[in-house]
Design brief:
The protein is mainly α and 93 residues long. Helix content is 86%, strand content 0%. Helix 1 packs parallel to helix 3 and helix 2 packs across helix 3. The radius of gyration is 18 Å and the shape is elongated.
């Protein structure tokens, strides 16, 4: 096996492990921990040259976890905005 092939395999292994942890945390209802796990993977991917280094079989799970993280963050933002509107309305009233 060529050295580069071993390196790519090690990256895929590390990414697969982190994606598995992220998905398990999210499925168990630990969305914030899942977000932290995904953040670790994103930092690793940045060091490796970006998500394009992932093998094709990891892109689907990676994209799914990104979508779930975006939805979680959007939900938090919506809750915060709603709370801010309620507080402003209470202060005005």
């Amino acid at each position: 096996m060529a050295p580069q092939s071993r390196f790519v395999t090690a990256r895929d292994h590390a990414a697969r492990r982190e994606l598995g942890e992220t998905a398990a945390l999210r499925a168990a209802g630990h969305a914030e921990a899942a977000l932290a796990s995904l953040d670790r993977l994103l930092k690793q991917l940045s060091d490796w040259g970006g998500p394009d280094v992932l093998s094709a079989d990891l892109r689907g799970p990676f994209d799914a976890e990104l979508a779930a993280a975006r939805a979680f963050v959007a939900t938090i933002g919506a809750r915060e905005a709603d709370a801010g509107r309620r507080q402003a309305g209470a202060q005005a009233g």
